[in-house]
Design goal:
single chain; alpha/beta; Aspartate Aminotransferase, domain 1; Aspartate Aminotransferase, domain 2; 2 domains; 4-stranded mixed sheet; 13 helices; globular; binds pyridoxal-5'-phosphate
Length: about 375
């Protein structure tokens, strides 16, 4: 049998991002039992670290044992009951998945559409709420990784709150890259992912639920359709009242990795992390614009950590990205859906948001004739 040795890459796509050696080292520590008191203490510490990163006091804050998509599904299956109306904002790929989630939960999605590459239009959402006062939830993507657009989570969540709706917010790409202030903005059900701006290994989805969301889950009329993601059961595994009982086996070594990546993030400081992402975006932007490359998102709606840019004319998308990967070891992302073949998505997420990476990418662009 051949052993597998992955090549060394510079990860500048839509995730996963580069991982700090300390995180990989933590991951390789000896596995212990998931009910070992030492591991139970670690679970408590990870919960308190996550509360700091989400800037919340929410008791129900923990990492779901599966990737970001499972965090998404956790929010929908627990908060949407058959017959519920949910306002779903769509301005890219992930808003479409939210619609699919609502349908599979037996709910009725009310779609608010915006152009790909634009933020969610708050006024349209306000109108949809006026037209559907019986809707129970508002779902939207804070940072659309498919287009590089950042929406106003604060305004949208306040609007949901004012109309007695629960907000379901995708912060997979936003968390640690731009401010996500769960309590201050009144966000209710929030999910993220470890492999984007948190720069951890893929496969975990930090989530947090407000008391309002938690009580809705506890008072459901019907059983949650998914056994694995049923928070009424998972809560007893992640709770801290000493009665932790077996639900599933937590991915022990991945939790070591998450703990270490949260240590790194909190050592740097959340604000410093947001600033680094923004500074690296400015550096990249200067280099791209001097090469005549244009962004597709208006400046005030742009994500620093996901730069969606037009492919320069005359450049073959597949060949260019292939050469970047093969010759320079650099990964950037392709366009999705209507943007396939016309844009690139350059990620500056977590450890990938550094001067060395930005300069390496820009000099590779020059070498490959984009100067
Ligand atoms: C990556 C991503 C997801 C899905 O996360 P996975 O870990 O790939 O399941 C969901 N939403 C957004 C906005 C993302 O960028």
């Amino acid at each position: 049998m051949n052993r597998f040795y992955p090549p060394t890459r510079v990860l500048m796509g839509p995730g996963p991002s580069d991982i700090h050696p300390r995180v990989l080292q933590a991951m390789s520590m000896p596995t212990i039992g998931h009910l070992d008191p030492v591991f139970v203490d670690l679970m408590e510490e990870v919960k308190s670290q996550l509360k700091k990163v989400f800037v919340t006091d929410n008791k129900l804050t923990f990492p779901v044992s599966a990737p970001g998509s499972a965090g998404m599904e956790t929010c929908f299956v627990n908060l949407v009951e058959p017959g519920d109306k949910v306002i779903v904002c769509q301005n890219g790929v992930f808003g479409m998945r939210m619609e699919e989630n609502v349908i599979r939960c037996g709910g009725t999605p009310i779609i608010v559409k915006d152009d790909w590459g634009r933020a969610v239009d708050v006024q349209k959402v306000e109108q949809a709420m006026a037209n559907h006062p019986d809707a129970s939830c508002l779902a939207f993507v804070h940072a659309e990784t498919s287009t590089g657009a950042l929406s106003d989570a604060k305004k949208l969540c306040q609007l949901a709150d004012k109309n007695q709706m629960i907000s379901i917010v995708d912060t997979v790409t936003s968390l640690a890259g731009v401010p996500v202030l769960v309590d201050e903005w009144g966000m209710d059900a929030v999910y993220s992912g470890t492999q984007k701006c948190m720069s951890c290994v893929p496969g975990l989805s930090p989530v947090t639920f407000s008391d309002k969301a938690t009580s809705k889950i506890k008072n459901r009329k019907s059983k949650v359709q998914s056994w694995f993601l049923d928070l009424n059961l998972v809560m007893n595994y992640w709770n801290s009242d000493g009665k932790r009982s077996y639900h599933h086996t937590a991915p022990v070594n991945s939790i070591y990795a998450l703990h270490e990546s949260l240590c790194l993030l909190l050592e740097e400081g959340l604000e410093a992390s947001w600033k680094r992402h923004s500074d690296m975006h400015q550096l990249l932007k200067t280099g791209l614009e001097s090469r005549g490359i244009e962004f597709i998102v208006p400046e005030n709606e742009r994500l620093p950590q996901l730069n969606a840019v037009k492919i320069p004319s005359g450049v073959d998308d597949g060949k260019f990205r292939g050469e970047l990967l093969q010759r320079y070891g650099i990964e950037i992302g392709a366009g999705l859906g209507p943007f396939a073949g016309t844009i690139w998505r350059i990620g500056l997420m977590g450890q990938s948001a550094g001067i060395k990476n930005v300069n390496t990418l820009l000099s590779a662009f020059t070498d490959l004739g984009v100067k």
